[in-house]
Every structure is written in C-alpha cells, then in structure tokens.
C-alpha cells in the first residue's frame, strides 16, 4: 500500500509582518496602514482552531491509499471510501466503508455502495477524485493542501518545461479514499474563504502575498470546515513558483484547494489534454467538488488553451460539462451550490465580450437550484444580483437578466502588486474598479449565503472609499489617464470653489455594493439624501470616462501605479448643494448592502471662493 501524502518538512508559522489597509480617512486620501484585527468567528460557528493552536495540531494529515497494480489492460478502477478512525490513511478491519459518497473519473460520477465500494471506467488520462461529503473531511498534506484525488497517466506527461506528471504505470489494484469525521463540515454554518489571482511572478511577490492576505488568513480561525479555495492564476506563468505557493498555504488554518487559471498553464504543452499537467502534479485536479454544511462547492476549469497561439478562451469542454451535469444530478435539492471558476460566467466590465462558451448549458443544468457563481481573472470586484442586466448580455439572457448572483472576486495580488510600497510589506495595488486587494468570504447558514470582502490588512470594517469628483479633477484625469504611475499629483483634491459646486459630486465607491444597496449622505449633519448609482444594471451599456470614475482611487494610482478606474458597477454619487458656504464641511456617508448591513465613513472637504 502506498498512501500518497505530502512529505515536505513542516516549518514554523511566520510571524505577522504587519497589518494595513487602504482606507478613506477624514481627508479622503488613500493612506496606509492602520492597525486592525481579524474579524472574529461567529459565536455560533463550529468548534474552531486558534491561529496558535488547534488546526495545526489536529489537522487530519494523510493521503489517498494507492494499492499498486500490474495489469495494464484493466478497464475499471475500484476502491473504497472509508472512515479513517486512526488517521493512518489505510483501511483497517474495524474501519467501515462509507455509503452514498460521490466518486468520479472526471466524466462519470458514481456513488459508493453500502460497504463504501465504487467502480469507475478507466480512461488513459484521468483524475479519480472523491467528493468530500458533509460531516467528513479529506486529509491534507504537510502544506495543508487537500488530498482527495489520484492522477492516472500511464506514460506520464510529454516533455514539459516545468515537469508535468510522472508516469503512473498501470491502474492501481485499489484506489481507496480515507475520510475522518468532522464537526467542522457537519455544522450548517460555514465560512468559505475565496482567494482570486494570487498570481506571483517571483519570490518577492510571494512575500507580498504572505504579508497581506495570507497573514490575514493565518490570524483567522473560522474556515476550518469549508477551507480556502484559490480560484486560478495561482502563479504568473512561472510554474516553479507553485512551491512558493505551498509555503504560503502552510500558514492557513484550514484545507487549501486550487483551480487553474490562464497563468497556470503549461504553455509548451503539445495538446490540450496536458495543458495543466504541472498544476495537477503540484496542486490537484483541474476540476472537482466538495461539500461543507449544506453547501456543495463546484470548482471548474474554465480556461481553454489550443496550444497553437498565446490566446485562450473561456469554456469547459464537453468532458467537463458532462461531469458537471452528472455531479449536479447527484446533489440533493436542499443544498446551496457554489459554482467557482477562474473566469466569471458573465461580468460587467467586459459585458459584451467575456463569457463562458457553454453558459446556456450551465444555466440549464443549474435551473431551479439555489446558486451563487464565483470568478476572478479580471482583478476587480463585482457583485451582480439576480435580474441584473447589461446591454451586452441581452443576446444570451433576453430581458430577464441574471438567473442568480454572480460575484467577481477581488484579487489577492490586486493590480498585479503594482503601486506605492507600504510599510506593512506590500504595495497599494488598487484594482481597476477602485477595490483594494483582499479576500472574499462566503458566510453560509443552511442554504443562505452572505458574501463579505475583507480588504487586505483590515478586519472587514472598511467597505467604501469617499472622494470628490470636481471639474478640476476631471480635467486632471483626462490629461493624465494614459500616464498611470507617472502622473503629477493633483493639488488639494478635497477643495472645490463655490462656482464649481454645481458640477461636483461626492463619490462613494462601495466595494461590495450591488443592486439592492443604498448610499445616503448627510452634509454637515443635515437630513440624509440618497446618492445615485452610476450603473443601474437595467440593460444599459457600460459608462466610461472621467464623470463615471472614482477620484479617490485615481488620485492614488495615476501618480503611483495600479489600475485606471474609469468605470465600475459599484460607484454612487451625489451632487453637492450649490449654496454651500465657504469653509470646511463634513459629509457622513452610510452605505447599506443588500443584506441590510450598514457601513459609515466621513469625508471632510473645503469650499473656497
């Protein structure tokens, strides 16, 4: 028997390098860093480990039990899913098989019998994996990477720069999947951490990630059940950095899972079937599913690369689509489905071009289900709700709009680790929609899912940035929009003359704002006035330009680097009263999200003669 598990030595958890957040202070400028603490776990959450003890001591470490075979002509692979009471990764006589667990070869989906046995047809290049059932957890290796799969590629990968898969030889005589009982995955309250686009191009950027989002996750203890899912572009083309990624996941307090993005490809692969061989060898299957609480998480591989040009497309391929259809068919109707892919199914920013090819088939498969869709790829944050509609979607959706919530997850790397260096150990890296880098968490209770975005280095309290869009700012932006990273500073951005008040908006970039959110503004303690959202998502086109831009973000990125923020689906604005007196004024802004949570920030500005 050969339990496949990690063998890298464990290293001590790194000390917290510092905390910081890009927030809007009373001056309205993007500053860094401020002290903050990790958001506490819910008082009703499952028993959780602390960052200093618990998970690291009690994590179920092990691997899949592979009983090597000699028959190269075997047509089926068989094995047992069992409860590994002594955590040895091998089934002992007193360890029972587990019935009704889903196992797949990446196309066919089957469930185990009363003794935990399964049988699947063999394909030449396949990954066999178990879907972690509720109330149980698969083992993790020494780097906290979940172990629930076995790659079968008899001759190994073709010659690849980064190695790919070693030859596996004949089909195993048995392929057994150990599980341990878990209160963390049993409880109906789950917290699923979602990281998009870690995308490190070198070891220095890996340290930025360590000091930022991974340091935040290392301080949290609420995701031991659902774990952390990293949804593609784990690295930036240099696949040797997967080893650095594993160093990062050692710091986590829960299992890590990965799906591939367009920068995780073996670009020298001669065939599509081997595009992600190095990713598979280092991190796991291209696509898979797992259960936590009453949520069924489906991780998809949405990048297709033909191998003849540098271009890639967004799609699942027929084999994966068949698996998705079979996987969802095996999920009880009373479960919420979290559908994650690297590229979003649809999005606002590229609403007329970026879309998954089999979108209609995916919607049909999920019809009637409680679903939330996740994507990354674009390095920005979008919160699109059921019924939202852009002009570029009408050919697919008609006038009905989106069938369920689609979230684009802000990147761990932000705008590719660009911008001003902060004392906290990473750059500002403001993204193209004005959102700072961070991590998304899905808070799930039964089948109700609430999303929250935690800005890197912050405890989750800061959810918006405030600024002034003045005529003087718009002139500066127009003159410098092509000079990101080298533009001159705009002097006194929070100062406006009386004659320009009528053309000045107070702007609120509500990073997780959506249809159903509201933004109210009180100037100098007056009555609250509701601000207007710049994109209503009622079938209009994307509004682009200085008047639709986020001044607070651009005041940081145009001089120092980061994204050009000239369109976003979560910006609100309110024209300032034209009769404001000369002098200093304060605006208090309260943003309320679709779930009824309120966030308040203040902005102080000056009116001059």
From TrEMBL:
Biased composition regions of type Low complexity, renumbered to the chain: 37-51
Annotated InterPro entries: Calcineurin-like_PHP, CarboxyPept-like_regulatory, Ig-like_fold, Metallo-depent_PP-like, Metallophos_C, Metallophos_N, STPP_CPPED1
Coiled-coil parts of chain: none
Residue ranges occupied by any Calcineurin-like phosphoesterase C-terminal domain in the UniProt entry: 408-599
Domain of life: Bacteria
A Pfam entry, by short name: Metallophos
Domain Calcineurin-like phosphoesterase: 214-380
Annotated region (Disordered), positions in chain: 37-61
PANTHER family linked: METALLOPHOSPHOESTERASE, CALCINEURIN SUPERFAMILY, SERINE_THREONINE-PROTEIN PHOSPHATASE CPPED1
Protein name from the UniProt record: Calcineurin-like phosphoesterase C-terminal domain-containing protein
UniProt organism field: Promicromonospora aerolata
